[in-house]
Amino acid sequence: MLRPRARVPLGCTALVLFWLLAAGWLSAPLLDWAQRAPHSAAPVSYAARTTIVMLGSGTYYDDADRLVPKKDALARIATSAALYSACKRSGASCRVIVSGGNPQRHETSEADNYLPYLLQRQVPRADIVLENRSLNTYENARNVAAILQTAPYDSLILVTSAYQMPRALLDFHRFALTPEPVISNAREIRIGLLPRFENLVNADIALHELIGIAQFHVYRLLGWF
């Protein structure tokens, strides 16, 4: 940019890149790559002691200035509650671990904020464990692993969005946990000619997850994980 002749081509390249991301042509393959989460067509299996782990997805202040779960978090809450209900119908002993701290530094943690929504969906408080210290996916896995050391289980189910599942499984495997993945929701890109803010948001999420996966492997090679 210090060279006058380079400013125009660099500026044009930046504009083209921005349009490709915002219009969806570049953000779509990025999101597809991030959402290559494993899934099975077979029904979820419930053992005598089943633990459902739900990962947090942030909170925000709505128009009434109330701190509420983000859209992806609501999908995870609904999926976890449905799994719990099916688990109880199977006759198993079931519980839900909600893992999410306060990385956004709001008035309360994700786990504490999600609790009323699980209660509204008929998940008893006695069967809910709040893990409210994790600030990222690696800490989700580490802190849940610590809880499970003193709480026996026969079946472990992991609930999160499609884009986070690949990295979450890497982190949980790092702590010798092999949960059955259940995807709560997947994000979509709308491809067209006009730029869309949501496409940029999805591109940012996809890059965050892909960089996180690369970081995980680099840290493992360095012996940091």
Please characterize this protein's 3D structure:
With 225 residues, this protein is of the alpha/beta class. It contains seven helices and seven strands. It has helices spanning 4-22, 27-34, 71-89, 110-120, 137-149, 165-174, 197-222; strands at 49-55, 59-61, 67-69, 93-99, 128-131, 155-160, 180-183. It has a five-stranded parallel β-sheet, sandwiched between helices. Strands 2-3 form a two-stranded antiparallel sheet. Helix 6 links the parallel strand 6 and strand 7 (180-183). The protein is globular and about 70 Å long.
Features:
225 residues, alpha/beta, Rossmann fold, two-stranded antiparallel ribbon, 7 helices, 7 strands, 47% helix, 15% strand, globular
